[in-house]
Amino acid sequence: MSRRLLIDHATVFDSAAGALRPNCRIVIEGDRIAAVTDEPIAVDDVASTIDAGGRVVLPGLIDAHVHVVASSHDLSSLALQPTSLVTAQSSTILRDMLHRGFTTVRDAAGADFGLREAVARGLFEGPRLFIAGFPVSQTGGHADMRPMGVRQREFFCSCAGLGLIGAIADGVGEVRRAVREQVRTGADQIKIMAGGGIASPSDPLEGTQFSVEELRAACEEAEAANLYAMAHAYSPRAVSRAVMAGVRSIEHGNLIDAATARLMKSHGAFLVPTLSTYAALADEGQRLGWSAAMLDKLAKVHARGLESLAIAKAEGVGIVFGTDLLGHMHARQSGEFAIRAAVQTPVEILQGATIEAARLMRQQGRIGELVAGAFADLLIVDGDPTRDLSMLAEPGRGVRLILQGGRVVRDTLGTA
Q1: Which of 310, 333, 356 is the endpoint of a domain?
Q2: Is the domain of 206 the same as that of 305?
Q3: pLDDT level of residue 74 (50, 70, 90 thresholds)
Q4: Cβ-count burial of 387 within 10 angstroms (0-12 exposed, 13-18 middle, 19+ buried)?
């Protein structure tokens, strides 16, 4: 029998109820939670006890939109780097995410099964990884990163990038093949580009991408493999087409209107806003050499970010925590908590980074909640996060202990 860890005097955040449960004990056996109770229980064979001192214990945080191999904002040049260098750089990004309290992340294209396995084996310190592999994009779509003067379709065929450049597919047959290839190579979810984007060179922001038949084919192939599709989309038209085709997760969605949000709600689709990336790029885009056209698109989505969040909230759409940061801007990951506070309550934001993310990822009972059978991923924090999330916005000070899979990642409980 695995030796046990006891966390005593804990105020547990019940992520499903959005409420605190004081005076709890959490029993951990191996990498799983064995029990969470406010009843006095005898715990045999305890290897060690952690006294939470009445502090709040949260489920490990989940960021549902990251790019852990994006060590630079310049994705085209990054994709030409050796795989070994890209992987080495990603190890720092992964470690830093974990030390901010993110014990699980959903990679929205870039990471491959080898990187996921490196984390699972403990070769790299980082969050549990759910990968999308290569994003599926039409010719000229958001993940077709070829410069306008380049005509060869296989321009990046010999690049060493780990999926930051799209799998180009046109027509239902090619889309099915591209999705099946991501399934074959270990994807946990399928990423499709359903509309225009900011950083891509040749697509209008409010345009739609892929035919409805192509979108439906991608979703059918994902579901056939017991996976789901996540779609990059901003405009009401792009979002609506994706949702009606079967997409489960809309990434960004800054330009949605109330009718689109209602459609999302009726289809059970989730929204993953990524507001911190627009704040970061608004500060740094010009310095990073972004073109005037890209900066114009950025300004439009940045201005509508909080409004789209408010619309989705009003219509009851499931809202999940995501950041979508690149390069040195990964350091702003925890800033997403403060940005969302203009629209969402602390409890809503916490649920988006825990139970709502788990529901989106079909991982209820495994991550995002402190229940028997779930992975022993948790944070012990100062203060009351149901009232104020400043301890998560500044995790270096406010997060006192991080546990992932029953292993202590960081512990400052013994310090003043």
Answers
A1: 333
A2: yes
A3: confident
A4: exposed
The domain that holds 96 is classified in CATH as 3.20.20.140
d(CA 329, CA 73): 8
Closest-CA residue to 97 (of 120, 66, 57, 132): 66
Checking DSSP bridges between strand 249-252 and strand 270-272, what pairing results, if any? parallel
Tokens of 147: 């410069």
Beta bridge partners of 399: 381
pLDDT at 414: 78
Answer whether 234's CB lies under 8 Å from 253's CB: yes
Which residue range forms the structural domain that includes residue 391? 4-60+367-411
Relative orientation angle of helices 172-184 and 212-224, to the nearest 10 degrees = 30
**pLDDT at residue 81 greater than cutoff 70:** yes
- Are residues 236 and 125 both part of a single domain? yes
Q: Is residue 349 part of a domain?
A: no
Q: Which residue has the tokens 């799983």?
A: 32
Q: Tokens standing for 210? A: 């892929």
Tokens (6 digits) for 267: 């289809």
Does residue 354 belong to any structural domain of this protein?
no
Give me the amino acid identity at 404: Q
CA-to-CA distance for 251 and 324, rounded, in angstroms? 9
